[in-house]
Specification:
CATH topology of the largest domain: HSP40/DNAj peptide-binding domain
Structural class: alpha+beta
Number of domains: 3
Distance between the termini: 86 Å
Bound molecules: zinc ion
Order of helices and strands: HHHHEHEEEEEEEEEEHEEEEHHH
Largest sheet: 4 strands, mixed
Strand order of the largest sheet: 10-11-15-14
């Protein structure tokens, strides 16, 4: 049902408030409810009115905000896989789609998360009618007891009370006359290790429910939250690590963090300059045909900001030595001095 059809059905115009929608539905539901209306089309009309009410108030199952291209791809994958489930699609309530944000560590290692699923169901107190029988008559609020309503060109009988001026039903206090109650349940979702952004997980039977139909499925789109340290680039896991410039020159053992737990890397002696260290196969785990990614560590040299007297005494003779052999150790300094200070 389109938004326009829903509005038309409830006799509303675009931009109707939530209260307008509820009022219009309540008024029409009183008229068309099969318990009150013997016309053969009443049940179908009532069902359509409720669907219109639900869709205008955003109770639709599968309701979600506009998604980016990436996740739309993920969704179609999931729908394809849901369709081929031995014809389960033939008589099922709609699927429900939600996004679930997890950390890089949770995506890498896998985790179990509890997801709250809310669904509008017929109110148990009034059986979804929105009103309950009352032994006493109540003055009709629409026509104030007159049984008639003023319209352009005169008066017409009040539909809400069938022109009687009194109603023998009261608004259900449980659902405030909506006939709908929000039922919430917790669904446990197992996210496998090596999950990736925009992966779609399917929890069978946890989608929307409807009388006489098998439950829809719950489709969960994985969202990997930005991480202050790790970036996932394709299949690779990328991180930056500051390292002392002297350590980079001398080589040695440095600790490296990893979602699986940190480990010690034997760094070879090399230039004290930004460089990338790549460890094959230590990135995102392999999956199906896709090989495991690499762990790429961007090493950034850091010079000591200041020296205290003890370090100054040790480093001074080293600096003198490097100055003397600048052509070898600091060619840029040597070239500059040769040109401007010959
Ligand atoms: Zn109710
Ligand atoms: Zn009335």
């Amino acid at each position: 049902m389109t938004l326009g059809e829903a509005q038309h059905l409830l006799g509303l115009t675009a931009g109707a408030s939530e209260l307008d929608i509820k009022r219009a539905f309540r008024r029409l539901a009183m008229k068309w409810h099969p318990d009150r209306n013997n016309a053969p089309e009443s049940a179908e009309t009532f069902r359509r009115l409720r669907a219109a009410h639900d869709s205008l108030l955003g109770y639709r199952s599968g309701d979600r905000e506009q998604r980016d291209d990436e996740s739309a791809t993920g969704r179609s994958d999931a729908e394809d896989s849901a369709d081929d489930g031995a014809g389960r699609n033939s008589a099922r309530a709609p699927d429900r789609e939600i996004d679930l944000e997890i950390s890089v560590e949770e995506a890498y290692l896998g985790c179990i998360r509890s997801v709250r699923v809310e669904e509008a169901r017929p109110c148990p107190d009034c059986d979804g009618l929105g009103s309950k029988p009352s032994p006493r008559g109540h003055l009709c609020v629409d026509c104030h007891g007159s049984g008639r309503l003023r319209v352009a060109g005169g008066l017409k009988p009040c539909e809400a009370c069938d022109g009687k001026g009194y109603r023998y039903r009261v608004t259900c206090p449980c659902c405030d006359g909506l006939g709908r109650a929000i039922a919430a349940r917790e669904v446990e979702v197992v996210i496998p290790g090596g999950s990736r952004e925009a992966d779609v997980l399917c929890v069978e039977g946890e989608g929307a429910t409807a009388d006489g139909l098998a439950n829809g499925d719950l489709l969960i789109t994985v969202r990997v939250a930005p991480h202050p340290l790790y970036r996932v680039v394709g299949n690779d896991l990328v991180l930056e690590r500051p390292v002392g410039a002297l350590r980079m020159l001398l080589g040695g053992r440095i600790r490296i963090p990893h979602p699986r737990g940190d480990f010690v890397l034997a760094l070879e002696a090399g230039p004290a300059a930004s460089r990338e260290w790549c460890i094959r196969g230590e990135g995102w785990p392999a999956r199906g045909e896709v090989e495991a990614g690499d762990l790429r560590i961007r090493l950034e040299p850091v010079m000591p900001r200041e020296l205290d007297p003890s370090l100054r005494d040790i480093l001074a003779p080293i600096a003198d030595l490097i100055d003397k052999r600048a052509a070898q150790f600091e060619p840029e300094v040597h070239a500059w001095e040769s040109r401007w200070l010959p």
